[in-house]
Give the backbone structure.
Amino acid sequence: MAESSISDQRSLGGLTAQQIKQLERASRWKNWGRSWYKFSRNPLSVVGLVTVVVLILLAIFAPVVTPYPRHAGAFTDFAHAELPPNAHYIFGTDQIGRDILTRIIFGLRSSLLMGVLVLVIVVPPGVLLGLVSGYYQGTWIDTIIMRITDIFLAVPPLILALAVASVLAPNLWNGMLAVSLMWWPWYTRLVYGLASQLRNEYFVAAAEVNGASTWHILFREILPNTISPILTKMSLDVAWVIIIGSMLSFVGLGVQPPEPSLGTMVADGARYLPDQWWIATFPALAIVIVVLGFNLLGDGVRDMFASEGV
Amino acid sequence: MAVPLLLEIKNLQVHFAVYGGRLKVLDGINLAVYSGEKVGLVGETGCGKTTTMKAILQVLPMPPAKIPGGEIFFKGRDILKMSDNELHQVRGRGISMIFQDPTAALNPVFSVGQQLEAVIGFAAIKGHQKSQQEIHQQAVASLLEVSLPDPERLLRSYPIQLSGGMRQRVCIGMALATNPELLIADEPGTSLDVTIQDQVLRLLRKLVEDKDTSIILITHTLGIVRELTDRVYVMYAGNVVEVATTQRLFAQPLHPYTQGLIQTVPRLTGGGIASGIPGRIPDYLNPPSGCRFHPRCPQAMDICRIQKPPAYRVEAGHEVACFLYSNHERDAKAQ
Amino acid sequence: MTTEILTATDLKKYFVIGHSGWPKRKPIAVKAIDGISFTMFEGETLGLVGESGSGKSTVAYTTVGMYRPTAGSLRFRGQELFGHKDKRPQHLRKEIQIVFQDPGSSLNPRSSIKQILEMPLRVHQPGKNRIERVVHLLEIVGMSLEYMYKYPHMLSGGEKQIVGIARALASDPSLVILDEPTSALDVSVQAKTINLLLQLQKDFHLSYLFITHDLSLMRNVASRVAIMYLGKICEVAETADFFRNPLHPYTQMLLSSIPVISEAEEEFKPKKVISTGEIPSPVNIPTGCSFNTRCPFVMEVCSHIDPVMAEAGRGHTVRCHLFSQPAPGSVSQTGSISVPTNLT
């Protein structure tokens, strides 16, 4: 191979494998730094991130951080029932005498679990179907997948969830299943739109021209360019799933007593408004904070993936 | 009788806040446009010419962008100190702009007529609102001026139905419909085919000459500058490095960058491909000390690393920011 | 060396964009390439010039396998490229590569430079030590190894285009199609990139199909030039001959519209053929010679009969009634016969 005399870039051929690894590590650090910079431009995004982290930690360490962990199970104490917020019970007690603060934190567990697990179940198949139908847009594959998607989208979501949940035994897991069934088509739709556009890009053509496998094109060329909208949607979806889950338990088709659930707490406590306002209000506020936290985090994630360019 | 000075940029600096610090893009630009003049602004991608134009029209995104210093005088008043109201008077009526990509500059969901008439309507002087009839007439007249046939039908058409050349003409028509005193044309022919570009540029020259409009033509294509302008500014890395009449610039380029640039243009008469200018444009985060061109300059001297060269007047109208000409007098206006 | 590397025979590519009429359902087609024939030789740079709608990009994409032709044949070293019903076989894919025009969209913004260069290696040389080969490619194009883990948005336009070139070289091809490789670049970067391409051509015995609209560049890079208009080739000649003695009126129009920067070039340009009218849409190609709506030398026969390619000198062919007799028996309406004239 003749020496290339044209370039005026110093060619550093001759780096050891060790040095190349260092190069990789250094650039990865830099990329994370840049991502954080973009994320943190908006202070509210950081607030969202902190909120979500705190909530997750509270949920994980619930037995340790709550003042009355036993109140999360079968427990009654009518002597201390319906007490307003005071020094011993910061958010007051409910109609059976259980500490509301403790139950809220335990209730977070099922809410967050539902949010995360539903997405874990729903996103991979939804995205996969969207990728395939988008890449093969115009063919029978596209038609079949998108018509099935359309059918699921045509049914009003809450009704579908209620129908499924009422057929199955009412508990957290079946509630999640019901919500999953109504949630996946949105990801397919999103990714379908993105993939059908991306397949016309020149870098995809470059891969096709070289005879790259369809697997490579779908997962190495197209998918990485859809991550940003998918992640943004996911962080906003966690909030929505939690609300839907709360709606299900509000109606009695989700988490069953005595297990605490934010939705059930609001439902039960609604009866006691406006006199014993704290029984319903604090759980409702908790739902608001969770939803807000994830929304702000979602905004930050979107900014993080925003394209560079001055 | 002195020709009035229409636009004067004095020592303009523009910085952008980014990850890692500040991009010091414009480093003290000096530029002047007289009434009725055709001025070219030549430079390569990233030299700051578009940033300069955006600064004139005050359309820079202000959170990342900052203007730490400098003044832009339009007809004697500093644009940087104008209120929104005053800016509104200037934009469109005093200064108009044509963009590089006519497809992106026209809104695809509105007809040509709707967009053209909107521009004419906005530019009406307060108190002299024009009737719909008058606006329509003016729109038709604008299209005829840019040699577009069948204006009535064209006004009803949508941009997507027109060819690239026709879209660019519509943009020119829109820009000139309000009779601005200064027209800024940012790479007006670049996205067009060569034969169409030739037509459009000849049209542009004829129109600005007929209406006595001044024009700043921004481009990186030297051939266009030579055919269309009277005077040329050459920019590199946020500085004006040379200014001269077009004829003189091509006959006797003085700055090493200008010389390098002219040398690398392939010739129709043959002669092979030049070797180009070594190096790459500087990182605006940490620009080179002294003269920003010194790392790439074949004639760099010690002083070039230390001090930024002022503009030296080698001849009336021909100034160079280069220490090679330090035996000439400094230009009093700059720095 | 005059062995043929690429031969096109009456190649056609039509795109059906809709149907008209009812119930006949006549297809409306964009005739992107409408019967072109050309030959490329090993080691040469064939320049292909044209404006919008000329079909030059379609020629590029068809050659590299992105489109299947509607009719006609395209042979690579004697082997028909589109003989197989299915996809092109791997051994042919590696031989013909392409560098795309827009550096911005030809690189995956979410892939690092290393991943971009690995892709063809992964396909054509599975299993081998790819890092070594990536490093080797970067060395060949003179790019510092620091760039391996960078992303496209961190690179300048010129650097991105160099990555595109490196990617094309990864499969060790014989024929590289360069689709306006420097049109999006500044003139000083263009010089460096072109010089790199010329050096690589020498080092690796490459043949280039060089597509551009920049005739000044073409003058200094190509060994032969072909000019296209609305899907057909108008004129082919060796470079020096093409520029000194342009025959086709469209060639003259194009050459006289170029903005040049020196007096010498101004005088060299053919006498001014003012460009008039818009380029017709490829959906509505004029009958007869497709250039007749804009040709300053148009004659009666031009709107009825499409001229054929004819020899007009050594290695110089042109498709124009000014230089060829219509076939006997196909006399035009007025009964007149065109007489070839030399217009330079």
Summary: The first helix of chain A runs from residue 17 to 40. Chain A has one domain: 44-71+88-293.
